[in-house]
Amino acid sequence: MAEPAVVLLAAGLSRRYGAVGKLVANYRGKPLVLHMADTLNAMVLSQRIAVCRSGDDDLAALLEGRGFEVVLNPDTARGMASSLVLGIEVVEADAAIVCLADMPNVSVGHLNAVIHAGRRAGIAASAIEGGSPTPPAYFGRAHFADLMALEGDKGARGLLGNAPLVTAPADELADVDIPADFR
Q1: How many whole angstroms separate alpha carbon 80 and alpha carbon 92?
Q2: Are 23 and 176 in contact (CB under 8 A)?
Q3: Exposed (0-12), middle (13-18) or buried (19+): which is 63, by Cβ within 10 Å?
Q4: Tens of pLDDT along 103-133?
Q5: What's the chain's Rg over C-alpha atoms?
Q6: Domain 5-182, what fold?
């Protein structure tokens, strides 16, 4: 079975973090975004796509330096769905795993478990025990049209209602949003 692509969403406005882009800020010894990028680079994936905000040249350069194909989102104010659509449009594989760049603690083991569950069901998502679906999430090509029809800032959560959930500890699925999270 062919390996999925990854779509790394890295175009958020980081409003809760402050004026400086949080994804290039130092987190545990390296820019925050490189934690997820390096985890993904430890995996066998058919294609590595990162969606960045237009004008965020430092972030794009970091990801290109790690072998990601960077797609620029010129209008991130339209919400997360606009970035997801741009990423899915360039996926060549029959499936994609969608990840958020501000989730530095997700493990290769968890990502592989999501891929495994997604291959069986065509769709899968992560969740903390008893929680709702969250990225990382797997989508087979049969779901790409639904992904590309999304709008707004909710991402693909509405498509994941019946998806198998792969649980992980809350700290593994935590995202880094505010300056206090960097301590």
Answers
A1: 21
A2: no
A3: buried
A4: 999 999 999 999 999 999 999 999 999 899 9
A5: 15
A6: Spore Coat Polysaccharide Biosynthesis Protein SpsA; Chain A (3.90.550)
